[in-house]
Write a structure and sequence with these properties.
CATH architecture: 3-Layer(aba) Sandwich
CATH superfamily: Peptidase C15, pyroglutamyl peptidase I-like
Structural class: alpha/beta
CATH class: Alpha Beta
Low-confidence stretches: 199-204, 207-211
Number of strands: 8
Length: 211
């Protein structure tokens, strides 16, 4: 099929207490499962480094020109698979795997404080939970002000909102790699259905005051 939809899904390398990063394990499981015949799926492991993200993401958008870019990260606090609605520009104080942090503590100088995905995560969440695949999905508006949030904001900026971010719990808390792979497959398929329909929001900047 010449007109396959192209989707790029990223996970992160190990960092901190996450000697195995469940996000990359889940993405590899998704790669094994695929997204169906009509979708060309590419995956990429992202370093937990601010500067690497700044150079890698523009090249990924340019090289693949995906209809949708999906970033997956691990959260030690998550007990559900969590869909992040927006990325934030400021507040990056934690050091990365290279013991670096942006001097400005922000992603883009003079960029909007917050950028929302064009996809309505509440709709995606409801559809996946209604499908009863044995994985609980929730929605969040705070991706954590570390490499996850930083990557998401940068990708939303580059892709005019056609990016999404999914937080997964560590392996076995409570989901296996197979569970997470199936969950990602169901979530991304719902996202693609929404993109095809008229349910996308205009790329908007949220006006919430973020601390």
């Amino acid at each position: 099929m010449a007109n396959k939809k192209k989707v790029l899904v990223t996970g992160f390398e190990p960092f901190g207490e996450h000697a195995v990063n469940s996000s990359w394990v889940a993405v590899q499981e998704l790669e094994r499962l695929g997204l169906g015949e009509a979708v060309e799926l590419h995956v990429c492991e992202v370093p937990v480094e601010y500067q690497a993200v700044q150079s890698l993401l523009p090249s990924l958008w340019k090289e693949h020109q995906p209809q949708l870019m999906v970033h997956v990260g691990v959260s030690g606090f998550a007990t559900t698979v969590t869909l992040e609605q927006c990325g934030h520009n400021k507040g990056y104080k934690r050091l990365d795997n290279c013991s670096f942090r942006p001097a400005s503590q922000c992603c883009k100088e003079n960029g909007p404080d917050c950028i929302k995905s064009v996809l309505d995560m509440e709709t995606v969440c409801k559809r996946v939970n209604d499908s009863d695949i044995g994985i609980s999905v929730s929605v969040s508006e705070d991706a954590g002000r570390y490499l996850c949030d930083y990557t998401y904001y940068t990708s939303l900026f580059l892709g005019n909102g056609r990016a999404t971010f999914i937080h997964v719990p560590p392996l076995g808390k409570p989901y296996s790699s197979q569970d997470l792979g199936r969950g990602l497959q169901a979530i991304v398929q719902e996202m693609l259905k929404l993109l095809e329909g008229d349910h996308t929001k205009d790329n908007e900047h949220c006006n919430l005051e973020h601390q």
